[in-house]
């Protein structure tokens, strides 16, 4: 799967929802250390258990307990669970609300800062409408996200994005703007939306599109728009791969791969 392109345009930033409730972004300490853990997912057959493996000659232990987990409308539990990562007897990562049970089970020691949700990747499938649940920041509100691609008319295919059944942006002339970016407001925070639907329009019938929703902590360049934004008025250029981009003030990234199942 090819890299997601970053598309940046000085004139291509607007706010779609001027009525969103404002949430003040908290600034972190200047002298902070960020650790990113990247691992390959594996299927968990037992509701409770552990797994041990080595990384760079270091023993890594993963413990989990989903026996009392409570689920909402999505596949992820919201309480009654823990997932813990232990290295050299120290708790390096702990997710979930059963913190005491996790320390008791693992026997790990060591104080650490709370884990922060910084990125998520999800695959969905559909024919014309693609829907999922999404958060746009750590501990943020869960929203209904719906993406609709109307390519039935070859003259003017368009892309529509709804959040909580409310249209937040649309892209006309999609055959010319199959890659781009645009800014909206969610929970009072600016969210940059990137899309790449080239495969939908010009690839195979079962091709996938890639979307990225990137929450920013800075709203200096955003302004309110009283009407539904039309990104056909935006200027944008595809200048580099996303993996190589350096954009300041980013908070959370949500990658969404949408597959056609026609």
TrEMBL record:
InterPro entries: DUF868_pln. It holds the Pfam family DUF868. It comes from the Eukaryota. This is DUF868 domain-containing protein. It comes from Dorcoceras hygrometricum.
């Amino acid at each position: 799967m090819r890299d997601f392109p970053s598309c940046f345009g000085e004139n291509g930033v607007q706010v779609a929802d001027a009525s969103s409730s404002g949430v003040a972004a908290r600034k972190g300490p200047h002298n902070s250390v960020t650790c990113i853990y990247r691992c390959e997912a594996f299927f968990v057959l037992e509701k409770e258990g552990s797994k041990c493996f080595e990384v760079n000659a270091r023993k890594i232990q993963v413990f989990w307990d989903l026996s009392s987990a409570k689920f909402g409308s999505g596949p992820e539990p919201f309480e009654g669970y823990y997932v813990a990562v232990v290295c050299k007897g120290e708790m390096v990562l702990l997710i979930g609300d059963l913190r005491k049970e996790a320390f008791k089970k693992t026997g790990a020691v060591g104080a650490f800062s709370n884990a922060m949700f910084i990125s998520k990747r999800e695959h969905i499938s559909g024919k014309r409408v693609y829907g999922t649940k999404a958060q746009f920041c750590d501990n943020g509100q869960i929203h209904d996200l719906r993406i609709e691609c109307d390519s039935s008319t070859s003259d003017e295919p368009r892309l529509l994005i709804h959040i909580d059944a409310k249209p937040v942006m649309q892209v006309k002339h999609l055959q010319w703007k199959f890659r781009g970016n645009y800014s909206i407001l969610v929970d009072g925070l600016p969210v940059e939306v990137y899309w790449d639907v080239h495969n939908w329009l010009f690839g195979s019938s079962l091709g996938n599109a890639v979307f990225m929703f990137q929450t920013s902590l800075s709203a200096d360049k955003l302004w309110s728009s009283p009407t539904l934004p039309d990104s056909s008025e935006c200027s944008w250029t595809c200048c580099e791969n996303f993996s190589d981009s350096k954009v300041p003030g980013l908070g959370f990234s949500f990658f969404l791969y949408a597959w056609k199942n026609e």
